[in-house]
Every structure is written in C-alpha cells, then in structure tokens.
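Weekly structure sync, notes
Attendees: PL (lead), two postdocs, one rotation student
Agenda item 3: pending single-chain targets
PL asked that the sequence for the first pending target be pasted directly into the notes so everyone works from the same version. It is reproduced below exactly as submitted, 586 residues in total.
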Amino acid sequence: MPTPYGARQRRQGLAAVLVIGLFGGLLYLASGARLEPADFTFNNGTEVSTLDPATVTGVPEGRVLRAIFEGLVVKDPLTLAPEPGMAESWEVSEDGLTYTFHMREDARWSDGHPVTSEDFLYTFERFLNPRTAAYYAYQLWYVRGARAYTKEVDADGAPINDFSTVGIHTEGPGTLVIELEAPTPFFVDLVGFYPLFPVSRRNIESAQERWPDSWEIRWLRPENIVTNGPYRVLHRRVNDRIRLVKNETYWDADNVALGTIDVLAIEQDATMLNVYLTGGADLIDRVNTNVVREMMEREDFTPVPYLGTYFYRVNTTKPPYDDVRVREALSLTIPRAQIAVDIMKMGQVPAYGLVPPGMPGYTSAECRKEDTERARALMVEAGFPGGEGFPAIEIHYNTSEAHAQIAQVIALAWQRDLGIRAKLRNEEWKVYLDTQNTLRFDVSRAAWIGDYVDPNTFSDMFVTGGENNKTGWGHPEYDRLISAAAATVDPVTRLEQLRQAEELLMKELPILPIYFYVTQNVVAPRLGGYYENIQDEHFPKHWYWMDDDELAAKRATYTHGKNLVDPHGPAAGMYSPAEMRRRAQR
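Predicted structure, written out during the meeting:
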C-alpha cells in the first residue's frame, strides 16, 4: 500500500506566492495546532448542521456522513453503480415490488456490536416517524404504507398507524425485506443515499437514558457517537474542523489507506485556496471566480459537468410573490448568461428548467428566456408599473463570495429593468437553512444536486407540503403527475409525466432557475482513488497517496481539457473541461 506523504511535500505548482500576497497570511490553522497533522485534509465549505443522517439537508453533511457511516449499498467511486455495503447481496422480485437484502456477517459498529437487519428496521422507522422531522422522509414513500405512516398523525404529532403497516420487516438478524407501492427502478441507488444510513439503536437509547433533556445533541458528540463506516469521529471543534480516524471495526478496514482525515469548515473562497496552496489542505470544493484563469492551467483543477441546479426559491405565501405574474417578471429579467459566463467562468450553463442535462431519455422543460418588455408588461398587470408600490425585495443567501456576486448582479437587473429595489442578506449555513425551512424570506438562493440519475430526484421536491419544497407552493395537478409517474411502469410514459410536471413548475415559477453546475474541486495530484463524476460524490474509503511511479504514470496520460465524462453518457450536452477553459479565457 502506498505510503502517505506529508501535506507540504505534496503541494507543487502554480504561484502560491502570488495568491498568498493577494489574500494575506494563514491564521486559520493556528486554531488546530494541538492536533498532529492528518494524513489527509479537505475543506467542506462550511460548518455541518448535524451528523444525524435522518435530519441532514445538505451536501456538506453528506461528505462527512459518507466517511463515517455506510448504507445497505455503496457506490463505485468511478461509475457510481451500486455495490454491496452493509448488505452483502440482494434480490428483487419479478414484479419489482419486493427487495430482499442479506446482511454481512462481519459488519460491525465502532463499539464492536454487529450491524444487523434490526438496525436498519429501527433506522427506517425513526426516519419515517413524523416526530423525527426528517427532511428526506419522502424518499422512502415508495415503500408500501410509508407515506401514510409519516403523514397521518394525532393531535400530539405522533403517527396514528403502527409501523407494522409499513412494508419493511426483518427475517432474522441477517435479512431485511422491503416492499414497495410500485416498481421503482432507482430504489437500490436510493438505499445508498446518506439520509438512509443506519444509526445504532443502542447508542441513541443509551443517550436518551443518560441525558433525557439533551440526548439529541449529546449522542452526536465525538465521545458518544457510534458509526459503522470506514471512519469514526475523534474530535470536533465547531467552525474549525472534524478529525476522523480509521474505524478498525469496519468490515473492510484492511483496504482503508488513510489513518486520519481532517474536515475543515472554511467558508471564504480566498482563504480556502490559500490554505490549499500553502499545504494546509489537500482538497477544496470551490475556487474564487477571480482566479479561474490561473486555476484552469493547473493539473489539479479540472471542472466537469455536475448533476446540479442553482436557483432561487420564491416565498409564494407572501404577497406580492404569491402572484405568478410577479414571479415570471423576476425570472424574465435574471441575466443568466452574464452570471454563467462573466461571474462563474467555469463552463456553467444558463438554466431555464429545474432538471439539468444528463438524464437518459429526458429533455428538461424550460421557462421563458429573458424578455424585459414582457416582464415590464407583467408588472403593469400585477399593479406595479415601473416597480411603483412594490416592496423592497430581500435576496437571501448563505455565506459565499459567489452567491454575493450573483445576488448583486440580479439585484441590479431587477432595479434597472423593473424598478424594484433589492436588499441583500447573507447568513451562515445553519441559520440560512432555518430561515428557508420557516419561509422567512422573499427570495432565497438554493441548489439541488441529484441524489440519483433520474429526473424524479429533482421533481419530487416540489409536491405540496414536501419537506424540501420550501416555497409554500403547491398544485394538485403537479402532485398528480408526480404520483402517476411513481406508479407507472412504462419508462417512456413515466418520463413524459415527469416532464409535464416540470413544464407546470416552469409556468408557475415558485423557483427561478439560474444555472447548471460544474464541479469546482481542487485536488492534490498525488491523491489516488478519487474520480470526478457527474454527482460529485467521493468516498474517503478509497483514497490513498500515490507513490512517485504511479504519479508519473498518471501525469504521462494527463491532458489539459480531457473530458472525464463520457460524451455519450449522462453528462452529454454540457460543456467539456476544454470548452470550460476556453470560456474562462474570454
């Protein structure tokens, strides 16, 4: 197994001196000086809101959870195809309704206890229980009786149905059986999604007994949390880092190369790049748009298409945003091309629909493209000629230089084209999520990354009352189409139903699409087992440091602008890295 290299030995290449001169000295690492350097360090872009799989909502949490927990299945790091995880094997019935998972006999929690089918039964019951308030609970509503269990509650918010009415049961400690309402072609992929990672019942119930008033926080502390993945949590300092260490009880621990991993919480783009260039991190998840031209010349930065959409949510419960004419006017005056080309600069594609390119057999429905004349006419119809009488609109976003730049450009466009005055409000990640969840905004920056390669992963967000809807919008026809698609076996008919739903969404515009994502990762060239992919999902279990010979072989085959995504595969239709570089030079 290749020997790990020190972080400062690994950093090579471009003008770190220039960047340090621009952004100032590094102070951040002083807060973690008491820890020995980790074998690997990556920046997560923000402080995670929680480490409880059931209640996570965002990408930053998923990056950590994939290191410390493992679901029934895992993903191949290159192809993302499902592979055995806690389940060693599985079968699907001929009618596509029953999935039988067979557990590994050597699966263990970090406290040494076996991971069994009962752990998953407990996890899924807790996940679906309305009192847990899991944002992704709807992801298991494909299971027979699951939706009713979550949605039908008594006066105290407890489920009125017994969990035995849900199509999940065990057949001994080694077998888990799941029965669906209708065939769901992506269900195996879904059970590998991080909100469905198992939690230890023993761990949680012990915390409830010891700390009845604070167990929900205490069971997640490093000294208490029990995990079943390749790593466990050793140390956490809020707004600094999480230190992960190899989990020696993990079933595949012999193939986990890195002994320790640090997860940083730096939000400022310039700071995180400085940390990377000075050897304090080996992977960062984005770069400041001001240095894109320089970064495009580096071997450690190769953006590829990413199955994600950047958009604004509109609070449709709040006048005047409850008027579809106002929402359309706002959409018609967003300068999407300017944002994609002049601000982001890495090949992002202007978005006029919710579902990004990359879905086999599916073409996204689009809203109208920019049209200032129509937008002004709509504002007149809505009673706000030239913006007269329209309240100042607040654009809400989580802390990020790029989000701020985009908000500024959109605010100027709305002022210029519609006569609407705009205010900007940024919040740190956890507060921002709470603001969205409680609809305390006018317009709020948002994004969605596909959890699996199917348009449903985007479309089912906006059903009436969906936990990830967060707009207050609902439409019975939209709900009907999403439900019909879930029950449709014919793939062509199903995709057409989903497209009709997206078409309705783009007419009603509770969201304003802005651009489709590309990855922005900067990765130490010596890192092995890491592959760019359309979902930007990466798995620390597979990471290792290449020796000199392997690195030389990699560099011999490296070509700037080589498209790492099959041009005929899921990402077809989006810009290649070569085109991204060309656009960055404009």
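Discussion points:
- Residues 307-518 form a domain with the Dipeptide-binding Protein; domain 3 fold (CATH 3.10.105.10).
- DSSP finds 20 helices and 20 strands in the chain.
Action: rotation student to compare against the earlier draft before next sync.
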